[in-house]
Design brief:
Elements lengths: L1 E2 H8 L3 H9 L7 E2 L6 E3 L3 H13 L4 H9 L4 H37 L1 H6 L3 E6 L2 E10 L4 H12 L9 E7 L7 E8 L10 E6 L2 E12 L6 H11 L2 E3 L5 E7 L8 E12 L1
Antiparallel strand pairs: 1-3, 2-3, 4-9, 5-7, 5-8, 6-7, 6-11, 9-12, 10-12, 11-12
Helix pairs in contact: 3-4
Pfam family, one: MerR_1
GO molecular function, one term: DNA-binding transcription factor activity
InterPro entries: DNA-bd_dom_put_sf, MerR-type_HTH_dom, MerR_fam, Reg_factor_effector_dom_sf
Length: about 270
């Protein structure tokens, strides 16, 4: 058997913590000398201590751990708990990494505001009517690829890699995770609508302020700010009830599947 100081050294758990576990009836010494009060532990109790520490890492309270230890949870059940915790941590890491990437992108936009405005040429042009198959949904930016996949599944083999992706931005009333958006693919031939997919004709727009830029559809970009500044500076205003359009083609020189060459389109009229 090991004295508490020896057990502390071999387990790398403090004497104070071992005494506290004893008080909680969480890990009782194998033997306590009734004359000296010295606590003694066996090597087998290392396994019990390791389980306690494992449950602590999973986020259980000491009271919950005491109940779990009393229930004699199997090794397979503990492994399952750790796998769930591992999945949760990986998911949180992915979310935090996405936030970090977005922060870096936002910071880059702020640091290069002047350059961004100089590097984009806004063109006003007439845009003709366009027949499309569309799918309107309230969703977040990161769901855009999934929405397009559903449209492409509906179209089947008629979708070509060179066919543009069109995003119509209708508005955002409640949350950035519930943006009212519509994704669409151009059609060369009419076809019947099959809800929730709609065959419709995007209307002709006599004056459309347009700007070509590189972007990722799943992330905000500086192009909208540049276009907004141009509209305001040149005496125009956005035409009511016309969604902002974004026409996207894959960026062939990029290894990023979400990278696109996009034409941002905003219907305008004289202010």
């Amino acid at each position: 058997m090991f004295k508490i100081s020896e057990f502390s050294k071999i387990s790398q758990v403090s004497v104070k913590t071992l005494r506290y576990y004893d008080q909680l009836n969480l890990l009782k010494p194998n033997h306590t000398d009734r004359f000296t009060g010295y606590r003694y532990y066996t090597a087998d109790q290392m396994f019990q201590l390791n389980r306690i520490l494992a449950f602590k890492e999973l986020g259980f309270s000491l009271e919950q751990i005491r109940q779990l230890v009393g229930e004699q949870i199997s090794q397979e059940q503990i492994r399952g708990m750790f796998r769930l915790k591992e999945s949760e941590i990986l998911s949180n890491l992915a979310k935090e990494q996405a936030k970090l990437t977005q922060i870096k992108e936002r910071l880059s936009f702020i640091e290069n505001e002047g350059e961004n405005q100089k590097s984009h040429d806004v063109i006003v042009k007439e845009v003709g009517p366009q027949l499309v198959l569309s799918y309107r949904q309230k969703a977040s930016l990161k769901q855009i690829p999934e929405l397009f996949q559903q449209v492409d599944d509906q179209l089947g083999n008629s979708v070509q890699p060179s066919t543009p992706q069109i995003v119509l931005w209708h508005g955002c009333e409640e949350s950035e995770d519930e943006i009212d958006m519509e994704v669409a693919r151009p059609l060369t031939l009419d076809m019947p609508s099959r809800p929730p997919f709609t065959v419709k004709q995007l209307p002709e727009v006599p004056m459309m302020a347009t700007l070509i830029h590189l972007c990722r559809t799943t992330r905000p970009c500086s192009a909208s700010a540049v276009l907004a500044a141009w509209i305001e500076r040149n005496g125009y205003r956005m035409k009511e009830n016309e969604p902002r359009r974004e026409i996207c083609l894959p960026h062939e020189k990029s290894n990023d599947p979400e990278a696109h060459v996009a034409e941002l389109q905003v219907a305008i009229e004289r202010a």
